[in-house]
Amino acid sequence: MKKMIKMLSIDDFKLITLDEKELFDKHYKKFPPVHSDNNFTTLISWVEYSKYKYASIEDNIIIMSNIKNQIQFRPPSGEKRKELFDQVLMLTKKQDSKYPIGVIDITTKDWLSNLYPNLEFIPKREYFDYVYLASDLAELPGSAYSKIRNRVNKFKRNYAYEVEKITEENMSEIQEFLKRWCLWKDCESDPLLENEKKAILYSMAHYFDLGLSGITIRIEDAIEAIAVYEAMNQDTAVVHYEKGSPDFDGIYKIVNEETAKILQKDFKFINRESDMDLPGLRQAKMSYRPHHMIEIFNINKDSI
Asked: Could you give the CA distance from residue 185 to residue 51 in angstroms, rounded to a whole number?
């Protein structure tokens, strides 16, 4: 006889804390996240802004966010079970969010479309992940990368730099660099940058607890750029942050290349997350010729 899933209630959702890392790590070994927004580091680092909660139901994890009083659920992570998604749908009917279910990858979208043909899926282009061949970012091959190669070579002619791993010894310097970065970017004037600053500072404060890796670019004995990354699944690493000084033209090209040189030893792909609909960022990410995008969709409440 098929085992019944217990009824899902909003009260089953608990705020995500660092204590849940072990639970998520164990779950993601079996069901690796497809999109970077479901990575545990992302969830815990942005928890103040997005108020992420989770419910663990048998072998599934369901994530819920609450941004500006708009509650949104994500499809269960685990074996696809219609009876569990039906319960998520029941919860959404009690919400007034326009898009009460989101971060739906293409495989899940296709599965849901077959089960619920009336659902309307809205693509969220601003949150599509950019995924690159690690070898492309490390080697910048062929004419497609000629402009980037020229910038990289110019930088190397103009500046002597060192690549260092992020360690406990240089962590305080990195914290100082990030404070300078926020002054350059005027983080406090932009809510998105202000919340990104909080997310970065949280992840760096818990860098070793989260099992993160990263590098710094040091010029004239000062840290002028950093990159922070980790494994996302067996063949893909995700780069959470790349930050560089505006005083060194081309430094983002350098930290990108140096990160890829390290990651290509262990990973085929590098996920560099989304562009958040920022025109300059989109142009920069597209210029590196993504191998593919991780598309995600929201469900329009009117179609539920």
From this structure: 25
